[in-house]
Each structure stands twice: as C-alpha cells, then as structure tokens.
Design goal:
six-stranded antiparallel beta sheet; mainly beta; four-stranded antiparallel beta sheet; Spore Coat Polysaccharide Biosynthesis Protein SpsA, Chain A; 4 helices; 234 residues; 2 domains
Length: 234
C-alpha cells in the first residue's frame, strides 16, 4: 500500500502566463556570464563585479493541459515542474515525518524523457534520475527517491522533454511508500471581503473535485464585507 502525498496539478486553459508559472516552468533559460568574460585570467580592476544574465529560450513552447491533472507535451519541447504547486518539499517531509523515501509516479503515454532533480540548501540543482519513455502504449513510471539528504533544506522536481513525438502525462503524484496511519481532519479557512463571486467559484471548485472533497472536513468562511457570499448565485 502507498499514500498519495501530493498530486501533479495543471493550470486551467484560460489562465494567463503569470498564473501558469505557478504550475510549470515553460521558459527554459540559461545563465550566461558576461563579465569578466569566460576564460579571461589575470588581475582585474577591483571595481569590477561578476555579472550574469539569464536568457529565456526564444523557442520555448507551451504544454497543453488536457485537464487539471493531465498534460500533453508537444514534440521538441522541454518543460519543468519545478514550480510552486508541483515541486515536492522534500526537506519538510524529511523533518516532520518518519518517511525516508518518497516515490514519484507518472502515468504516461507516448515518447520522451523524464528527469528528476533535487536542490540543496544553497539552491544548487543536482540531477538524480533520468528515464526514457518509449513506445506508444501507456505505462507507469515509478521512481523511488531518498529523503535522507534533505536535513538542511531542498526540493524534488521533475522535467519532461520530447524529440519527435508527443508525451502525455495522464496523471502523476508524489507518494509515500506506506499506508497513512490515519486520516487527517482538513479544514479550509477562506476569509473574504466583498468578493462573493470569487468565493463561490472557489467553493464550486472544491465541491467538484472528488479527491479534495473526500479529505476536507469543513470549509469556514469569515464573510466580512457588505456583499455577502450567501447572497451570491451559484
């Protein structure tokens, strides 16, 4: 038995790029040292400073969210899930639980590559595992990852890349290798002030998601404005 800790989640199709960036990094970038020039040795003016610029890839392509939990990666595309909602806070689970390993599971179809990275406390990125996805038939990728290196901080995340074929992730998540010892009582607090439309939309999203609905015990809404949520249609 295993326990889902965090699922892979995708943006809505209408979300702007600023919101999409919370889910996926679609702008592959490289850092380039511009001063002092690479390879230059010798004594420099003490007023000189090291300068690096980050260059966005002009050929970066957007992935296509098929649902809130599935995504299609077009051919000739690289995308990183090192983002707010999809990177796994490994140091948190290392510090506050008895877990010493975690499993990344992805249900995939098509062809491409999955690469897993971790970060150190100083934000240095380290490649941990790479795996090719070949053949049109669907399969599950199951990668066991060690949590012991995360005493001082760090995250896990994965990148997807394709060459001549599309790669589809039907679902994915970070799993504990054992069954949870019990069920947490999850309560959502949602203070609001004169934003009944947004509040009702959020309540609808919670209610329509079966997995979220199954673990939420209660939703508490301190309604502080004059435009009340209870008067909003929906």
């Amino acid at each position: 038995m295993s326990t889902l800790l965090q699922r892979v989640i995708l943006p809505r199709r209408a979300d702007p790029m600023a919101v999409r960036a919370l889910y996926v990094d679609e702008q592959s970038a490289t850092a380039r040292r511009v001063w002092p020039p690479a390879g230059v040795t010798g004594k420099h003016d003490p007023r000189d400073v090291d300068i690096e610029v980050t260059l966005a890839n002009p050929n970066a392509r957007r992935v296509r969210a098929l649902s809130r939990t599935s995504v299609a990666v077009p051919e000739q595309t690289e995308v990183s899930f090192a983002a707010y909602f999809n990177a796994f806070p490994a140091s948190y689970w290392r510090r506050w639980t008895a877990l010493r390993t975690v499993r990344l599971r992805l249900d995939v179809e098509g062809a491409g590559r999955v690469d897993v990275y971790r970060s150190k406390a100083d934000a240095t990125a380290i490649h941990v595992h790479g795996e090719l996805v070949e053949g049109a038939a669907g399969r599950q990728i199951d990668i066991e990852l060690d949590l012991t290196p995360f005493e001082d901080g760090g995250w896990y995340w994965f990148d997807l890349s394709t060459e001549d074929s599309e790669l589809i992730v039907h679902s994915g998540g970070w799993h504990a290798p054992t069954e949870a010892p019990g069920r947490a009582a999850v309560t959502i607090g949602m203070p609001t002030f004169n934003r009944p439309t947004d509040c009702v939309a959020t309540l609808r999203a919670i209610g329509e998601d079966e997995l979220v609905r199954s673990i939420v015990t209660a939703v508490i809404i301190p309604d502080q404005g004059v435009a009340k949520v209870r008067d909003q249609d929906g």
